Amino acid sequence: MNRKKLQKLTDTLTKNCKHFNKFEVKCLIQLFYNLVGDVTEWQGVVIGLDRNAFRNILHVTFGMTDDMIMDRVFRGFDKDNDGCVNVSEWIYGLSLFLRGTLEEKMKYCFEVFDLNGDGFISKEEMFHMLKNSLLKQPSEEDPDEGIKDLVEITLKKMDYDHDGKLSFSDYERSVREETLLLEAFGPCLPDPKSQMEFESQVFKDPNEFNDM
Amino acid sequence: MLSANRNPVAKILGMDYNTMKEDPSILNILDKITKEDDPESEVKMKMAMLLEELDLHLLNYSLKHASLEIHLNPVTIKKDIELLKHFSGQGEQTVLESIEYTSDYEFSNGCRAPPWRQLHGEICYVLVKPHDVETLCITCCAEGVFLNGGKTDDEGEINYERKGAIYKDLVTFLKHKSAKFSENMSKQTRLTEEQQKVKDQPKKAPKKKEADALHKSITSSNKSKLENNQINFGKNQMTKRLEPSVNWKTDVDFKVRRISVRDTQEKKHGGRPEKSTPPVSPGRAQLVHKNADKTEEIPSESSSESEEDEEPPDHRQEANADLPSEYWQIQKLVKYLKGGNQTATVIALCSMRDFNLAQETCQLAIRDVGGLEVLINLLDTDEVKCKIGSLKILKEISYNPQIRRNIVDLGGLPVMVNILDSPHKILKCLAAETIANVAKFRRARRVVRHHGGITKLVALLDCAQNSTEPAQASLYDERDVEVARCGALALWSCSKSYANKEAIRKAGGIPLLAQLLKTSHENMLIPVVGTLQECASEESYRAAIKAERIIENLVKNLNSENEQLQEHCAMAIYQCAEDEETRDLVRLHGGLKPLASLLNKTDNKERLAAVTGAIWKCSISKENVTKFREYRAIETLVGLLTDQPEEVLVNVVGALGECCQEYENRVLVRKCGGIQPLVNLLVGINQALLVNVTKAVGACAVEPESMVIIDRLDGVRLLWSLLKNPHPDVKASAAWALCPCIQNAKDAGEMVRSFVGGLELVVNLLKSDNKEVLASVCAVITNIAKDQENLAVITDHGVVPLLSKLANTNNDKLRQHLAEAISRCCMWGRNKVAFGEHKAVAPLVRYLKSNDTNVHRATAQALYQLSEDANNCITMHENGAVKLLLDMVGSPDQDLQEAAAGCISNIRRLALATEKARYP
What are the residue boundaries of the EF-hand domain, all occurrences included (chain A) (predicted)? Predict the structure, then answer.
């Protein structure tokens, strides 16, 4: 990509993104094209990270392991549902990942956890997300009993209106009371350590930063 | 069923039924029932038991009547005597001095009386020596107990004739004969009762025996066993029991209640009757614990290191006891903590936080299901969220002293200390807060220090200044001020150990604390001032506090609304005001007025103690006293002399002692009626209080008008008796106070003589090895010796050799008062010569080389007196006194001039006389 085009793209994306400065946007764009590889851009053909490539990044860079959650994160990034994350979705998603406010993160996490997108996290969804969270005890008669119990515990803690499922307001209220519950059903945000590593790696040219 | 329950009776009805095994009827019934093994057997069994119960009731009832007529038998008497022997011996507490049989030989029937006397129903003869009456020779026979003719000394024969009324048993008899016996008997009762209460987990078996023994000793033996059983059935119906001794009654009742409680308990937990220790009701034990640990809870308590280190015994919850439902829920959560991934762990941690973690049941439940280990392990992981969740729980439950110890035992502190380095502020905060809770006892504080925790905590204080924060504010982060606050909180806990105070100082904590002191957040100021106040016990800190201009801010915060903050500020000022410059600083920054006004708020005793302490130390400076008088603090102080706890009194009296060094204040104290309460306090036992009270009374006694009041209240006698106090500080302080009393009392000589043995007591105090005591006693002797008659008496008690022995001292204070005493004592008989003979003169001459003019004056006066004896003059001359004295003649001090000149003149006159004799 030529320099002029990059400059232009940076300017537009910076305008739309409130958490990154110009330098950071530029770094992230460069990273994006590095990741996508040497694909020449054709007219009309969207280039971007497909599901597998994106999942790979999540796994390697941000240490996520849960397949289902990673799929959901991909959907969270892929705003236009076209099966790949393009450069503006990339910038937008990372701005939330790295700099998002609690409100933004809550909204994002709730969307990730609401598997069928009906606006509620149901018991079944919870069970689905938590099913691998406990070590299976061979002695137990029903291996799912622990999970079911965990779901009940979670509901007891978070379901303020007692309707047997979590609405966004239930979720929001619980998280405001206890921030730890933001990622209640699985890690869908980078953990602080890998976040710091990522940032220090990507935004590492301070001279250019000063120029701006 | 039978094989599984070998002893069904005991299991159902309690241990006491074990003793009834020999009763065949019950067993027979039971055997029959249990062998049948049909479904109805249970009903039948119950039926049988009810019948049995009824039977026993009837039996007991009839026995109660029958026992009124029952005669004494050898067994009862023996038990009685043995029991009394236990409580006999020398000393005030025992019931008797001794109790003995007249004959060691016991016949096979249990009697000790010779066979021909047994015919008369006599069982044995006892020699009893109560505390207050002569030895009694007593006959115990079937009809009762009576006094006989006594044992004849020469042949050891007993005069068997009855000399008094017959009593129904030994205890009743002795009670009539000896008042001391009945008095101590009731004391013993109370004593044993207390001992019982002290035993936390009493063994059942011995206690029961004890109780049995008591029963048997009082009532007839066969009855007691039945009665013990009656307890199980009748519970509280047994009020109208035959009770020969009123005093024993409380004791017996008490034990009976315990037994019945225990038995009912055992019935409940019928599963394990063989267990020797009955389950102590957990509720009560916890209550006791809570009380015991209250002191530990308050971080401002005290700065001494020794207070808190007794480790409370662990009381684990007994398995299968009545466990609360929380226990099971917590157990389940801990299981998820152990076997869950990060997500499940966070959910379990959050859910655990919904329990009332301030409640001991929950705290102990977490520990007892192994939750502490898991929580501490979580701190070692990389998962920030798990660490946060775990610390949030640990922070809450570490309010419990037992949990604190468990955390330390499990190695939790080093991990938390490491977390202090974390980049996440919330982790730093939580770790510091948890350390603040855990480090309430010495061992924990040591661990924190050894793992470098103090340096890291001090580094937290620095946070507030570092405003170069990265722009990205992470989710779980707190404000910098909060980090500093938590650091200060942890340092406050840690600062109770001496070595930690040192470590804080070395880590550069003082300037940082001083910096934080400038903020206006109360929750920040309290731990900061708390730490400073703890540390101010060290000299190095006081210097630093002065240098860092901390006093100014302490004074400022005295005006805060927060009582705790006021208290700690006052406490810090109290510690620092030992230093004169600091006292001036307090005044210059206007700290005296808030202190004086806080004196009027007497509801919070801790704060009052701190405020009065600060006033005391500040009033060592005269300018401050003037200010206090202006603020009418002295009147208020006098008002605080009554109805206050000792900690407050010590400081109030100390402050008054300092204020009364000035005439105006002495008058003020007298006019406010302060002398009476002061004199009343002379009878206390608190050492610190006595030192201050004697000083204050002494200061008042300088005023003749006040002296009249002190004399009228018998204050001088009280002071004099404090010379017998074991603490040297009290002795010395009392002696100093006596000086103005003797000076200002009317008929002082007569007054002093009226204290029987008083003069001998004073003279003997010269044998003390405490310099301050010696100096003060010398001062008292100087005053006593002003009266010729008294001087004669103390001379007889050997004051001259004792004073002479002290002469070789380097202590200027002692030298001065010793020289004064010697100079006074020279006024009697041949004392001048005697001092010479006891070699007091040569050392005195050396006093003239001291740097203290007071010593010079006193010594010159003593030498002047001594120089009237020729031999003393020779000694002085030999020791080079003349040259030294000649210098002193030029002194601006007139008394010194005069005494020195007089002494030289005496020496010179002797020289002239010798010359005249030699060359007539």
Answer: 65-100, 101-136, 146-181
